[in-house]
Amino acid sequence: MMAAAGGNFSDEEFWKACAELQQPAVAGKWELLLETSGISVYRLLEESTWLYKYKIFGVLKDCSPALLKEVYMDLGYRKQWDQYVNELYEKECDGETLVYWQVAYPFPMYNRDYVYIRELRELDMEGRKIYVILAKSTSSSQFPERSGVIRVNQYQQSLAIESDGKGGSRGDLNTKINQKVQKFSIG
Predict the structure, then answer these.
(1) Is the Cβ–Cβ distance between 8 and 117 less than 8 Å?
(2) Which domain of life is it from (predicted)?
(3) Residues 118, 78: contact at Cβ < 8 Å?
């Protein structure tokens, strides 16, 4: 498990993720998509792009925050359980650890790929341990765009995890993806 070198994200970004965990902001035009087993999934349409932001809040009763953090950061393990992973690995580039992730999409759509940095911090908020993982897209000549794959150039994600006080985890996951127009393969 590796995290990106420090300095890619501000302290303010980490504390903002903690604040969102304490007081989920879903007022206004956020739409509840799903609520099951203690997990709620919301989305918000960004009218300027016609794309959605997503938020997931909830409690995993049988998973400690430390284990959830390890699973989230372990790219090798993700390749075992996520059938949509085509490629997923870390690479050192100019002193930073970058992640390359290619997601398989069904025919006739093209696969998507991401190049991003991520950073994990363990924060203390009034005596409570909170793990915060931030990720955002970046570019690097080490990862040129590939023919037949759509590069997602605007990707942001924050994950904040803390104990639910009963041996499980309480978490908040926010994702914003802005990708190019859908491309299809006809053939």
Answers:
(1) yes
(2) Eukaryota
(3) no
Short-list 36, 25, 48, 37, CA closest to 158: 25
Burial of 83 (0-12, 13-18, 19+ CB in 10 A): exposed
pLDDT tens digits, one per residue of 110-151: 999 999 999 999 999 888 899 999 999 999 999 999 999 999
Average pLDDT of the chain is 86
Over residues 171-180, the pLDDT tens digits come to 878 877 765 4
Spatial separation of the C-alpha atoms in residues 122 and 130, rounded to whole Å: 6
- Classified as helix, coil or strand, 63 is coil
CA distance 147 to 167: 46
Report the CATH number of the 11-178 domain.
Answer: 3.30.530.20
Interacting residues of 156 by C-beta distance below 8 A, sequence separation 6+: 135, 136, 137, 174, 175, 176
Whole-number Å distance between alpha carbons of 95 and 165:
38
Residue 126 structure tokens: 């009034």
